[in-house]
């Protein structure tokens, strides 16, 4: 399943090799603010799906707070600056740009309003995330095992310690020296890949939420330090990070709903087993590829949950730095349209793949641009 926000459980302690966050001089003395992940208040008639969605968030409270604190209170003075030749770095970032432009066309276009330094950093993060995802979903996925992922994690630690393996790794190493990025979200994404090697069913939404956090929510945590928070924003940094996390969760849930049929062909079902059972459904109904009334009702609730997270994400999108909002709003709007397309297909995501055509994508660009110009409000304070 591909992480697409740019657009777990790894050890919670950072290893000594992560120089930025292990150094005593880097430990900030400001207290951690007593903030938790925000969720929408329960409303009368709120569905069970939304209640479960709120419960799912609790699994990542502490780990997200730790990452946010590190990325907002630790300065880049704590990290050793790599000594790359400028021409080599230009080539590294140009390769990242080309990959992003080819593989994430709409998102790439949205990055064009960002400052050159932020553009390059986002491209470098996107490329690392894509390469990580391809370990499990790419052409060599059949040869994937924990040994390979362990090696990839060691390589990640080398990137954070100024020892990049190749030119694309070098772009991320330079990005890390320019922005306060914590290694933990990157490690958590690798843990999400491990989940894909050992797990093809999810008993409930709490389990699925953890998977979505690892493979997509983490990208939001990586992106906020680069995109920046608007100086005029009246809300806390934690609130903005929450919204970025929620966008990743919403995007991944949408990926799952779009790809149900394709995943079934690989013997995988990324749907909560207990919720399938509530509608009288099971894996065999997914593999049969027959769209029944029970399936339609089940899908309505799953789509409702994805929109629940998009609504939470929207509350913080306009609190990012003004020059960085366009790709985020583009992702929000386009992924919502994928959900619309599933509905337009009469909830047949078993034999059809919902997609947003080029014309519709082009129409969303000025809409997302207008939203990107919106003034931050007190909505999520």
Automatic annotation (TrEMBL):
Reactions catalysed, as given in the entry: 2 (2E,6E,10E)-geranylgeranyl diphosphate = 15-cis-phytoene + 2 diphosphate
Keyword match Transferase: yes
Cellular component annotations (GO), alphabetically ordered: plastid
EC number: 2.5.1.32
Primary enzyme class: transferase
GO terms, biological process: carotenoid biosynthetic process
Statement: the UniProt record of this protein carries the keyword Nucleotidyltransferase: no
Keywords on record: Carotenoid biosynthesis, Isoprene biosynthesis, Transferase
Pathway in which the depicted protein is active: Carotenoid biosynthesis; phytoene biosynthesis; all-trans-phytoene from geranylgeranyl diphosphate: step 1/1
A Pfam family per the record: SQS_PSY
InterPro entries for the chain: Isoprenoid_synthase_dom_sf, Squ/phyt_synthse, Squalene/phytoene_synthase_CS, Trans_IPPS_bact-type, Trans_IPPS_HH
CDD domains for the chain: Trans_IPPS_HH
GO MF annotations in UniProt: 15-cis-phytoene synthase activity; geranylgeranyl diphosphate synthase activity; squalene synthase [NAD(P)H] activity
Family, similarity comment: Belongs to the phytoene/squalene synthase family.
Protein name: 15-cis-phytoene synthase
Species the sequence originates in: Nicotiana tabacum
Organism taxonomic ancestry: Eukaryota, Viridiplantae, Streptophyta, Embryophyta, Tracheophyta
């Amino acid at each position: 399943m591909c992480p697409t926000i740019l657009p777990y459980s790894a050890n919670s302690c950072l290893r000594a090799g992560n120089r930025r966050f292990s150094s005593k001089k880097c430990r900030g003395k400001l207290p951690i603010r007593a903030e938790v992940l925000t969720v929408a208040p329960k409303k009368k008639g709120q569905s069970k799906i939304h209640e479960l969605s709120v419960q799912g968030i609790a699994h990542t409270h502490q780990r997200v707070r730790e990452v946010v604190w590190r990325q907002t209170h630790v300065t880049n003075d704590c990290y050793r600056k790599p000594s790359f030749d400028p021409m080599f770095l230009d080539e590294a970032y140009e390769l990242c740009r080309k990959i992003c432009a080819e593989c994430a066309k709409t998102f790439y276009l949205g990055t064009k309003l960002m400052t050159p330094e932020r553009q390059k950093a986002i491209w470098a993060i996107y490329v690392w995330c894509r390469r990580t995802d391809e370990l499990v979903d790419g052409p060599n996925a059949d040869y994937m095992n924990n040994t390979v992922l362990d090696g990839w994690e060691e390589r990640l630690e080398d990137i954070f310690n100024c020892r990049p393996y190749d030119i694309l790794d070098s772009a991320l190493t330079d990005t890390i020296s320019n922005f306060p990025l914590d290694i933990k979200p990157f490690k958590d994404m690798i843990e999400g890949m491990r989940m894909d090697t050992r797990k093809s069913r999810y008993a409930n939404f709490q389990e699925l939420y953890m998977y979505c956090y690892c493979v997509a929510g983490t990208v939001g945590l990586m992106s906020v330090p680069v995109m920046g928070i608007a100086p005029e924003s009246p809300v806390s940094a934690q609130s903005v990070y929450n919204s970025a996390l929620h966008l990743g969760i919403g995007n991944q849930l949408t990926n799952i709903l779009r790809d149900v049929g394709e995943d079934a062909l690989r013997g995988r079902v990324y749907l909560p087993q207990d919720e399938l059972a509530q509608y009288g459904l099971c894996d065999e109904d997914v593999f049969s590829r027959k769209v029944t009334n029970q399936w339609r009702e089940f899908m309505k609730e799953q789509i409702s949950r994805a929109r629940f997270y998009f609504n939470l994400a929207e509350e913080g999108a306009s609190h990012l730095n003004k020059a960085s909002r366009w790709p985020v709003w583009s992702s929000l709007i386009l992924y919502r349209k994928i959900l619309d397309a599933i509905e337009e297909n009469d909830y047949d995501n078993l034999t059809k793949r919902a997609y947003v055509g080029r014309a519709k994508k082009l129409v969303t660009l000025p809409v997302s641009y207008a939203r990107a110009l919106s003034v931050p409000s007190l909505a999520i304070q």
